[in-house]
Structures are given as structure tokens and as C-alpha cells.
Amino acid sequence: MFQLRKDEKLIEKALGGSQSSWVSLVKRYEGLVYNYCYRMTFNNSDAMDLMQEVYLAVYRNLPAYRGDGKFKSWMMRIAANKTTDFLRSRGRNPLHQAGDVLDDEFHTHDSPHSDYEEYAENKQIMKVLATLSEEHRMVVELKFFQHFTFEEISQQTGVAVSTLKTRLYAALQKLKGHMEVQNVV
Predict the structure, then answer these.
(1) Is 142 in contact with 156 (CB distance < 8 Å)?
(2) Residue 104 confidence (pLDDT)
(3) C-alpha torsion 99→105→109→114, nearest 10
(4) Where are the bilayer-spanning segments (predicted)?
């Protein structure tokens, strides 16, 4: 509840022309938006470009934000739409990019051994996620990585809760099958 009130104050001040409030609002959610874009595109440059597009759209449409829902959900709907448009316009096939997940942003620990383990684990997760369709990957991303409820995801995507649950179940079954095959071979 505190964050919701803080968002409302920042939005009000940003709409009033406060650049520092706008910057605070962006900084509050930049990790969330970047990670979502990255896990959908599997490319650091594309994720950064998409993040800029998302924030440009948020800035342009901020006066239209009615405040009848969480700002975070409203912003993530914009992120989902921008990402979907991007993937469609580029004809992106994440299966071809899964092997190219070599970005260094996973290196955050002091120990080289733990860096490598984290990098290898993240690379494996990205490869497995790349086997999912865009719709399935999106629901997994929003549910498990962004921690949204099904109702919030439905508001963001315009997809019925029952359909989201079906997609999540199908995605988890596919991931389970993929992991079992990898562990057997």
C-alpha cells in the first residue's frame, strides 16, 4: 500500500513537471522492465531499446493513467505490448537466440567459481525458456519472475484468467519435459 501511495505522489509530481519525480519513478521500475524485456528477447541491446520504448510510451501516456489500478500493472501492460510488437515486427524466433545468451550481466558475485555457477544456471534457464512460445513465456515471466497474480496478468494482457492458468500449466509441462530430456541425455 505504501508503494502505491508513493507511486501516486511521484506520478502527480511528474505530471506537474517534476523531472526528479519522473526519474524516481523510472528508477523504481527499471530493473523490472529490463528483466522482463531481456527474458522475452534474450538480447541485452534489444532489452535496453525496448526499455526505452516502454518508458517513452509511459511518459507520453502518463496523463491518461487513471489510477484505477496499480501503476506497476499498467506499466507492465505497456511493456508486454511493446515487447509483443517488437517480436512480431522482427519475426524473432527465440529458439535461434537461446545459444547466444552470453551477456555478462549475470556476473555479480565476488568469487569466480560462484560467478560461473550463476552464469551457467542462468544460461540454462534462458535456453529452457526459449523453448516456450511467446504466450507461454510471457505468463511464466509475469507469474514467476515478476510475481504478479493471475488477475494482474489478466489486466495487463487482456487475456482471461482461465486462459492464463491453462497457458501456465502447458508451459510448466513443456518445461518439465524439456528438463527431463536434458537430465536423461
Answers:
(1) yes
(2) 41
(3) 0
(4) none
Q: What angle do CA 164, 170, 174 make, to 5 degrees?
A: 140
Least confident of 84-93, 137-146, 162-171: 84-93
- In the predicted model, is pLDDT for residue 42 greater than 60? yes
Q: Could you tell me the domains of the chain?
A: 1-92 (1.10.1740.10), 131-185 (1.10.10.10)
> DSSP for 71-127?
HHHHHHHHHHHHHHHHHHHHT--HHHHGGG---GGG--SS-HHHHHHHHHHHHHHHH
What pTM, to 2 d.p., does this model score? 0.66
Q: Is the dihedral of CA 75, 79, 81, 85 positive or negative?
A: positive
Query: Higher confidence at residue 97 or residue 58?
Result: 58
Q: How many residues does the chain have?
A: 185
